[in-house]
Specification:
Elements (H helix, E strand, L loop, with lengths): L1 H5 L1 H21 L1 H4 L3 H26 L2 E3 L2 E3 L2 H15 L2 H15 L8 H24 L15 H18 L1 H11 L3 E4 L2 E9 L6 H28 L6 H4 L2 H19 L18 E4 L2 H7 L5 E8 L2
Antiparallel strand pairs: 1-2, 3-4, 4-6, 5-6
Helix pairs in contact: 2-4, 4-7, 4-12, 5-7, 6-12, 8-10, 10-12
């Protein structure tokens, strides 16, 4: 406990930066945040982080006071921090799975959200957070000093995501090479929109592989710095405390990953791709020409030319 109390200022600073980052990302992507379970969870996480930093600051400033008959001391910062660490450390996989099921069941994504779906999201959030708190008090040994050394689920989830990205890149290596070759002299940028023309091999797995290639390029092209950061953390085994690991940028990264995976799984044939509102403020996947243009090219040629449009 001495280590924690001696570093209260640095803990407050870290939590303050995290809370500010969470609120900034949510503010910039607000139009997408209220369209999915992941968005709802991001909002709830940012709100709880803000409440936490306010509580820590009040306790730190007043040091020793009483409220409603309870004697509050600086020890309670350690107590609350321990609870949040244990709660956050076990939420990565549950949130990832629930968000994936949400996208799978609601594809193609519709607008606006019905009152029923909003109620389901609110109920799901309540179940997730209450379950996490119950785990802390009734399953984990949160009074133990060793609880600060608890490994977060973030490590295992990050390894799985990076492994999937690596496998996709290896599997679609021919498509990546063809796409990169097509970039030369056949692309243009207008504002923040980049358009790359891709020579599509019509014999390549009935369009499934080219579709996966385009989705992978959009995802990796948008999140490449974050992918590199996660790789560095994994390779050098950098320890990040669990109350900082669960943050809105990390959840937005998982959100894009899940949307890309579900979008490809349920819409693998590029000739049948349909436009839909994607609840993601970072990646958008738009393909052209229209399916009719591709179908007209089928009888006469072994390849077709499509445009990959990346909108950051």
């Amino acid at each position: 406990m001495d280590v924690i109390t001696d570093n209260i200022s640095s803990i407050q600073l870290a939590l303050g930066v995290k809370a500010l980052l969470n609120l900034t990302v949510i503010g910039l992507n607000w139009q997408y945040m209220h369209k999915s379970f992941m968005g709802y969870f991001c909002i709830s996480l940012a709100f709880l982080d803000l409440i936490q930093i306010v509580n820590f600051s009040i306790i730190y400033w007043f040091t020793d006071f009483a409220i409603l008959g309870f004697h509050i001391t600086i020890y309670h910062i350690y107590f609350l921090l321990q609870i949040s660490m244990l709660s956050y450390s076990i939420l990565h996989w549950p949130v990832f799975i629930i968000a994936g099921l949400d996208y799978y069941w609601t594809f193609p994504f519709s607008q606006p959200l019905s009152l029923t779906r909003k109620a389901v999201y609110a109920a799901s959030l309540a179940v997730v957070w209450i379950s996490a708190v119950m785990y802390v008090f009734f399953v984990s040994d949160f009074n133990s000093e060793d609880s600060f050394l608890l490994k977060s689920q973030c490590t295992s989830l990050s390894l799985v995501v990076l492994a999937v990205i690596t496998c996709v890149v290896i599997y679609c290596r021919s498509g990546f090479l063809s796409l990169f070759k097509s970039f030369r002299g056949k692309s243009y940028t207008e504002g923040s929109v980049s358009v790359f023309f891709y020579n599509l091999d019509l014999d390549e797995g009935y369009f499934k592989k080219p579709t996966l290639t385009c989705i992978a390029v959009c995802f990796i092209g948008t999140w490449f710095p974050f992918v590199c950061l996660q790789s560095i953390i994994m390779v050098f085994r950098i320890d990040v405390v669990s109350y900082l690991e669960l943050n809105v940028p990390w959840l937005c990264f998982l959100n894009s990953f899940l949307i890309g995976a579900v979008y490809w799984h349920l819409n693998q044939d590029i000739s049948g791709l349909k436009h839909c509102e994607i609840p993601d403020g970072f990646c958008n996947w738009v393909f052209s020409p229209s399916p009719d243009c591709i179908k007209k090219a089928l009888p006469d040629t072994a390849s077709a030319r499509i445009a990959l449009i990346i909108i950051p």
